[in-house]
Specification:
Layout (H helix, E strand, L loop, with lengths): L4 H19 L1 H7 L8 H26 L5 H19 L7 H22 L18
Helix pairs in contact: 1-2, 1-3, 3-4, 4-5
């Protein structure tokens, strides 16, 4: 059983980010580029994002440590970032420059990492997106 170091790193970062949004959503929100205190609805969404990221990151980390296939977790991670980017695109014109660069730029980077991780070769040498039909 070998540890998937890439998934260990990516899962650890996503888990830590998720926990930061759960423990102190206001501080985490500032770290991601927003200097203002969000209203109650926005705080609810920040905590929801924290749960989502902690769950995806924790399960990716667990799979990495157990030597399991992590490509599906990379895909879930990239999908979460794609949802953030899509949501952010709708309010792009209302965001401060720091929010655009950090928040949306981070989502673009996360999508790239997710796609890279999801299409890597597995231990068996197989290269395909998890869940895609096989040829046989």
């Amino acid at each position: 059983m070998s540890i998937d170091r890439a998934a260990l790193a990516v899962g650890g970062i996503r888990l830590a980010s998720g926990i930061s949004f759960l423990v102190d959503p206001l501080r985490a929100n500032k770290l991601w580029g927003s200097p203002d205190k969000p209203d109650a609805t926005a705080q609810l969404l920040l905590r929801s994002m924290g749960y989502r990221d902690a769950l995806i990151g924790g399960l990716m980390l667990s799979a990495a440590l157990r030597g399991k296939d992590t490509r599906g977790w990379f895909l879930a991670s990239g999908g979460a970032d794609a949802a953030d980017l899509l949501g952010g695109a709708g309010v792009h014109h209302e965001m401060r420059r720091s929010q655009q660069v950090i928040g949306l730029g981070g989502a673009v980077l996360g999508i790239g990492v997710g796609l890279w991780g999801a299409t890597r070769r597995s231990d068996t040498g197989e290269t395909r997106v998890p869940g895609a039909p096989t040829g046989g």
